[in-house]
Amino acid sequence: MEAYPFQLFPEEHFYLFKTRYNVRHAIRFKPSFYVLDADPVIADNVYESIIAQIEKPEGSIPPDEQILYTIAAIAEDFFKKAENIAIYVCDDSDGKGKARKRKFDGWFHYLNFEGRGFIKIDQGFHEADGFSYSASLIFKSENRMKIQIITALDDLAAKYNQPK
């Protein structure tokens, strides 16, 4: 299946697309050098991925598998720079974090991102107040810093998840 056409705004690492049902989506890769306490060679290439529905008509919208292929095409475009690292945080402030993670993991598997040269590392984080969420780091398997990236995520989780 083909992806929807999308617009790229390179300075903001921002993508827009509109579906056949007139639903507009934005995907942004927000520079997030502060997420990993890592060497600037890694930290300067970390981007939080944000997927948002920004406009939709009234009423119900049928499922649209083409969105999935569009997100995949946008990821391929973003990762043309092999050093890029995307972090996807499954926010659970509305109680839907586990559903977001299942959906995201399903997309990654369904689109065979591993077979296309991507690595996904998952990690859970726990707040002192009992709130928890998961995060996934995604990067190209050809990234020459992959061991350091994995180590930086593990170190962050170890610090973050210590008993408070």
TrEMBL record:
InterPro entries: DUF6169. It comes from the Bacteria. This is Uncharacterized protein.
